[in-house]
From TrEMBL:
Residue span of region Disordered: 22-47
Cofactor binding mode and count: Binds 1 zinc ion.
One cellular component term from this protein's GO annotations in UniProt: cytosol
UniProt family annotation: Belongs to the peptidase M3 family.
EC number: 3.4.24.70
Keyword Metal-binding tagged: yes
Cofactor(s) named in the record: Zn(2+)
Keyword flag ATP-binding: no
Protein name: oligopeptidase A
Length: 732
């Protein structure tokens, strides 16, 4: 079991807030965006003969074994965790107390091999936490999260184990290892050193105490958000649905029926429900109500208010890194990432910020003109922005978002993704026989992934597309098992999870262009996992400000001619999207970019400033207001994630002081997209696609990201490509 406790802390918090929505959306584990979970993915190891607990059992069945989602019981979770942790500690003690001199094989590789039964339990934990959460699970989660943190602290603070790791790290043998093995040793050593292994006495004890308390607070923060999402549902009658397209009305009726409110229309407190309502509803006061409910999650002054929790989390994080000698949390966080220093991340964001808010000013002026004509004479408010932006879109480009949705069927988009995966990655997706692979909900479907031509088995892909009670909002990717070869070739079990509103029986699922991009984005994470060719589990991890790059890049294939002509067909007539509409979409590609960039950057900048400031006596709401005021934040927009529900950074530590990573990765994305645009074969150029898979997908974290990108592109990426992609002026 690898000792990166912050990765595990994200998982046990129940958040997995990676890639939760579109901004580049996510995702992204290392929701554990899903990518961070890579370190806790593995297969088999037999439970003790004394137990019949299925959570501990090796995965049985086809495809090298699959999770028994249909048979495991929540009541078995606590005893399974206790037994698996005890077993894992015995494994660790065996490695630490080995009388033989420390070597790569008997120390590093044995650590990679340890903890398989615990890894399997965390797969089930992730499903209960993110996909099927219940009050019963949340009670267990709250009890066990600090205990799991204490367990990992025992490993991370095992002095004998660290000494053996350090011996390998400094040994002559290290120089003889393969490059990927050297990187594994470096990652393992740094995982210990950066997480308290070098501390002594009271400092070491305090470090462990802080981690336990943070695990408890992260869990509470995440559950408070989920409670507000579940408890605040707006029910409308027929007179209150003015302006809503038929597809949204039907989905809202289905959501109300699901909640036993027949004859009404439910607007749930999630982005997938809020966003289209604010775009189309002609009822301004209802728009304000829906907007306020959504953006006040965790900030209602009740039992689920998160402000005090935020303050405590920030203080504990600051204290913890101070024990290690870092001036602030962000300095510690970015040390092993591409940005290296907070100053570098801030420099990138501040380079884009002026252009973003300048574009917002133009967008608001256009909206205000239309608002005045319609009789709305006061200023544009945040609950008006989406509504009037849609009107401006129609006026400027004659582009109706609802018209576009008629060509964006979820099933067809899925087939489009499979087509792209075949052309670029040589993958084939075939539905498995219903019932042959256990699933945790009837909505979940499974496909086998093979290599085109050879038929070589790669793994399975699970899709859980629809919103439901107990499922966290947003979209994300995760893996239940990752590719490795050090103990025999192991296949991949990858998963994509969305929150589309389930339609009435027989009705198609129609989505917006932004949602379609998000669907492609999260599939990019799955392809990253499925493409893996690394030997060791740890190397399936990732660097936070890089792991969004691959998924962001895949968004570009949605707008390719090949996808549009074959898969974007009208859900009633089957006719392909007309050329006139395609041209409108492409002309409007950077429309509303001021809004999208500003709401994202505001969140990223507040995140960074929260984690570079002294948190003593901090008031989270006041800090947010004052920071945005200092940035000249346009009053017509709010942060994409206000601090009281900023799950990316407070439901775990996957994205804390790291939300900037979406933009850092987008610099790479924009540059790589230009490479495909310039290639002889365009976005389906075979030679460039092969380089993409070889250097940017298959190596995962076995190669330093900067080196990997240079191997693909032949140069470093620059911010100019990003500015061009967003339609902002490029200045040098």
């Amino acid at each position: 079991m690898k000792p990166n406790k912050l990765i595990i802390a994200t998982l046990i918090s129940g958040a997995i807030f990676g890639c939760s929505d579109q901004s580049s959306n996510t995702s992204t584990q290392e929701q554990t965006k899903p990518q961070e979970k890579a370190k806790v993915e593995s297969t088999s190891a037999k439970p003790s003969q004394q137990t019949q607990n299925l959570l501990l059992a090796e995965w049985a069945g086809p495809y090298q074994g699959v999770p028994a989602f249909d048979k495991v019981k929540l009541k078995d979770l606590k005893p399974a965790l206790k037994e698996a942790m005890a077993s894992n500690l015995k494994e660790i003690e065996s490695i630490a107390n080995n009388s033989e001199p420390a070597t790569f094989e008997n120390t590093i590789v044995e650590m990679e091999r340890a903890g398989k039964s615990l890894n399997r339990i965390f797969t089930y934990w992730g499903i209960w936490s993110s996909n099927t959460s219940t009050p019963e699970f949340r009670e267990i989660q709250a009890e066990m999260a600090p205990k799991i943190s204490a367990f990992f602290s025992k490993i991370n603070q095992n002095e004998k184990l660290f000494l053996r790791v350090e011996t390998v790290y400094k040994s002559d043998e290290m120089k003889q290892l393969r490059p990927d093995q050297q990187r594994l040793v470096n990652l393992t050593y740094n995982g210990f050193a950066r997480n308290g292994a070098t501390l002594k006495g009271d400092a070491k004890k305090r470090y462990a105490e802080i981690n336990q308390k943070l695990a408890e607070l992260h869990t509470k923060f995440a559950n408070n958000i989920l409670a507000d999402e579940e408890n605040y549902v707006l029910y409308l009658n027929k007179e209150q649905i003015g302006g809503l397209p038929e597809s949204i009305v039907k989905a809202a009726a289905a959501a109300a029926n699901e909640r036993e409110q027949d004859g009404k229309y439910a607007i749930t407190n999630t982005r997938s429900s809020m966003d289209p309502f604010l775009t189309y509803s002609t009822e301004r006061e209802l728009r304000k109500k829906v907007w306020s409910t959504y953006y006040n999650r965790g900030d209602n002054g009740d039992n689920h208010d998160n402000n005090a929790i935020i303050a405590e989390i920030l203080k504990l994080r600051h204290e913890r890194v101070n024990l290690l000698g870092y001036p602030n949390y962000a300095s510690w966080r970015l040390e092993d990432r591409m940005a290296k220093k907070p100053e570098n991340a801030i420099k990138l964001m501040e380079a884009v910020w002026p252009a973003a808010i300048a574009r917002v000013k133009q967008e608001v002026a256009d909206m205000q003109t239309l608002a005045a004509k319609s009789g709305q004479i006061d200023a544009i408010k945040p609950w008006d922005y989406r509504h009037y932006a849609e009107k401006v879109r129609k006026a400027k480009y004659a582009l109706d978002s609802d018209e576009v949705k008629q060509y964006l069927q979820l099933d067809k988009l899925r087939e489009a993704m499979f087509y792209v995966a075949g052309r670029l990655f040589n993958f084939k997706f075939t539905p498995v026989k219903e019932g042959s692979v256990p699933v945790f909900h009837p909505d979940v479907k499974v496909w086998e992934v093979t290599k085109l031509g050879s038929g070589e088995h790669v793994g399975l892909w699970y899709l859980d597309p629809f919103s439901r009670k107990g499922k966290r909002s947003g979209a994300w990717a995760t893996s239940y098992r990752s590719h490795t070869t050090f103990d025999g070739k192991q296949n991949v079990l990858a998963s994509n999870n969305s929150n589309f509103i389930k339609p009435s029986p027989g009705e198609p699922v129609l989505v917006s262009w932004d949602d379609a991009e998000t669907f492609f984005h999260e599939f990019g994470h799955a392809l990253h996992a499925l493409s893996s060719n690394v030997a060791y589990p740890t190397l399936n991890g990732g660097v936070r400000d890089y792991t969004e790059f691959q998924s962001q890049l895949l968004e570009n294939w949605l707008a390719t001619d090949e996808v549009i002509s074959q898969f974007l067909v009208h859900h009633k007539t089957g006719e392909p999207m007309p050329a006139e509409l395609i041209n409108k979409i492409k002309k409007a590609a950077t429309f509303n970019e001021g809004f999208k960039t500003t709401e994202y950057l505001a969140s990223a900048l507040v995140d960074m400033k929260l984690h570079t400031s002294d948190p003593k006596d901090i008031d989270a709401d006041k800090f947010e207001r004052e920071t945005l005021a200092a940035l000249n934040m346009p009053e017509e927009i709010v942060m994409r994630h206000r601090t009281p529900h900023f799950g990316h950074i407070f439901s775990g530590e996957g994205y804390s002081a790291g939300y900037y990573g979406y933009m850092w990765a987008e610099v790479l994305t924009a540059d790589a997209a230009e490479a495909f645009a310039e290639a002889p074969g365009g976005f389906y150029d075979k030679a460039l696609a092969a380089k993409l898979v070889e250097h940017l997908f298959s190596v995962r974290n076995a190669v330093d990201p900067a080196d990997a990108y240079r191997a693909f592109r032949g140069k470093d990426a620059s911010v100019e490509a990003l500015m061009r992609a967003r339609g902002f002026p490029v200045t040098r």
